[in-house]
From TrEMBL:
A GO molecular function held by the record: ATP binding
ABC transporter domain location: 6-233
Highest classification ranks of the organism: Bacteria, Pseudomonadati, Pseudomonadota, Alphaproteobacteria, Sphingomonadales
UniProt cross-references to SMART domains, sorted A to Z: AAA
Alphabetical list of PROSITE patterns matching this protein: ABC_TRANSPORTER_1, ABC_TRANSPORTER_2
Protein name: ATP-binding cassette domain-containing protein
Gene3D superfamilies: P-loop containing nucleotide triphosphate hydrolases
SUPFAM superfamilies, alphabetized: P-loop containing nucleoside triphosphate hydrolases
Cross-referenced Pfam families: ABC_tran, DrrA1-3_C
Family classification: Belongs to the ABC transporter superfamily.
Length: 308
């Protein structure tokens, strides 16, 4: 297994009587895209701020790039905060270069990297414009550029898609994927399942500061009972391993479509083998992959504020 770019070991953070993060343990393998998933108040932002040494844990241990959190590692980290903050009077290019210089980049390489990002983000024509002239979405892209300008080893993005339209959300997804291909470890928090579904190698699901799940998307989906859609002339609810079968429509020639849920531990392959060997007629047999939204509800519950 790859070395961990970031690891929490029994980390707790309390604000007075309120526990924001509760004995949280997980590891982010190097080179992965890792999703922090949870509703508002789940502990995502607090966890990232502790990893950045902005907040101090009440208890437990954190390692970032092999060391305790420290401002000294700033040159290897890119961070996009949930609360955006840019200097409104400063030009777009100078803003990105300024953040690059804070991360110990030399002026020349900083400007070159900033311009390359502005080209990629379709903002090159705005390089000399003050930030206050930008739309909210454009300013968001400038903030993203400040996180990427130093080609960080570890990229942390807190709700990075907030405020972006679908076109720019796709552009940001491509930037995240490219950063990972170039060797960066990417950690981003979100309450929108579709972005995590498309991007993440591994997931951490949080609920009220506690870990609800930690693993790959395949491992998360495997925890749910299998579900499939089949067409038959006979109701399949009496077949072994079937938990429920609901008729959802009719096909031609009297075939009926069923939404079938299997008991835990029973696989679609086992049911198909039984149907084949016992002469149970089938017109179609399609395995339904659970969405990440369904997986999240399974582990965390339906009361969290999330989006599909």
């Amino acid at each position: 297994m790859s070395a961990a770019a970031m690891a929490f070991d029994g980390v707790t953070k309390q604000f007075g009587d309120f526990t924001a993060v509760d004995h949280l343990s997980f590891a982010v393998p190097e080179g992965t895209i890792f999703g922090f998933l949870g509703g508002n108040g789940a502990g995502k932002t607090t966890s990232l701020r502790m990893a950045l040494d902005i907040l101090t844990p009440t208890g437990g241990r954190i390692d970032v790039l092999g060391n305790p959190p420290s401002r000294e590692s700033a040159s290897d980290i890119g961070f996009l905060p949930e609360e955006r903050g840019l200097y409104k009077k400063m030009s777009v290019l100078d803003t990105i270069v300024y953040f690059a210089r804070l991360k110990r980049m030399e002026a020349g390489p900083a400007k070159q990297s900033a311009m390359a990002l502005l080209e990629r983000l379709e903002l090159a024509d705005w390089a000399k414009s003050p930030v206050e002239k930008l739309s909210k979405g454009m300013a968001q892209k400038v903030q993203v550029a400040t996180a990427l300008v130093n080609s960080p080893k570890l990229l942390m993005l807190d709700e990075p898609f907030s405020g972006l339209d679908p076109v720019n959300q796709k552009m940001l997804e491509d930037l995240i994927a490219d950063a990972a291909k170039d060797g960066a470890t990417v950690i981003f928090s979100t309450h929108v399942m579709q972005h995590a579904e498309r991007l993440c190698d591994r997931l951490l699901m949080l609920a009220r500061g506690k870990k609800a799940f930690d693993g790959t998307q395949d491992e998360a989906r495997a925890a749910l009972p299998a579900r499939l859609e089949l067409a038959s002339r006979t109701a399949p609810d009496a077949l072994p391993g079937v938990e429920s079968a609901e008729a959802i429509g009719t096909a031609e020639d009297g075939w009926i479509k069923y939404d079938v849920r299997l008991n835990s531990g029973v696989t679609p392959e086992q049911l198909l083998e039984h149907c084949t060997t016992n002469g149970f007629g089938l017109r179609s047999f399609d395995v339904q992959t659970p969405s990440l939204h369904e997986v999240f509800i399974h582990f965390v519950g339906a009361n969290e504020e999330i989006e599909r």
